[in-house]
Amino acid sequence: MEFDFAAEQPKFLMLMYGLIAFVAVVGGLLLLLDVVPAWFARRREERLVAAVASGAPLPRRRKPREGAIALFFLLPTLLFLTVGLVVPAIRTTLLSFMDKNSSNWVGLDNYAWMFSEDSIVRVLINSLIWVLLVPLVATGFGLIYAVLVDKARFESVAKSLIFLPMAISFVGAAIIWKFVYAYRGDGDQIGLLNQIVVSLGGEPKQWLLESPLNTLLLIVIMIWIQAGFAMVVLSAAIKAIPADIVEAARLDGVSPWQMFWQITMPSIRPAVIVVVVTLSIATLKVFDIVRTATNGNYDTSVIANEMYNQAFRYGEPGQGSALAVFLFVLVIPIVIYQIRNLRQQREG
Fold first, then answer.
1. Model confidence pLDDT, tens digit, residues 218-242
2. CATH second-level architecture of 114-347?
3. GO terms for biological process (predicted)?
4. Which residue from 9, 86, 133, 150 puts its CA 20 to 30 A from 261's CA?
């Protein structure tokens, strides 16, 4: 199959226009942030030189209006948030109360469909399983690994090995693990998992076709990726524990187990909460892994994947928007909890 550059030219032009627009906007903001403060500093310096030359009293330094300066720096962010988040969120919410043609109001019918359709209830259950297992298991593995390799001889190498999956995209990780779960009916198995099963005398299986096992196997991919993030954050928190507290505990003769539960865990509790909350939000939005590994088939779909299917594949923007709104509602309590937790830490 030959690549026809002429036929694909409009796509390349759109890509080029997008890159030019991105460079122009970001470059303009950076230039503005560099030029404006320098211009004010130069003007003040000129006034000071003029006052010294004329023998006049030096001009008093006026206190900057902090509100105006803060607004100046926040305006680009507020603009992008409004265009990229607030407006789409309002539009999506409105679409969730409309029919598939986005022309007639149907009230809560799309939300009633979401909880009455068996396939969608299966999707919600899958998402619940994901959000229960991934944050807890990934944080647990990251914490155990951080404690075990802390101050070890090859600590940096050991941490690099578990952090490496973080450098891989979700799509890349899903493709790698599809090879691990690969099944071949006849001949030698190319999938690592099936090859291990065969070497132990078992029969190879099509792992990603068996529900609910396939959902758990997809969850393993997410844990494999996110355990490195949990390990890095928790390892930094462990190293931040004051040395005098650790030394005092050792002088008191506490065992390693007591050291972990009575000293380490209370000290890193805020970091553990941050990791669990961050992973919970990331898990609720998971899409790439499911889309790449199974395309949501065989009872493996999750909310984000089904939202895409309904809105863009099945021509049901109302139902897809309802799923998007429901996903947004699920994230809100987690964000509120994290904000309250951060405020309590700051006040404490």
1. 999 999 999 999 999 999 898 888 8
2. Orthogonal Bundle (1.10)
3. transmembrane transport
4. 133
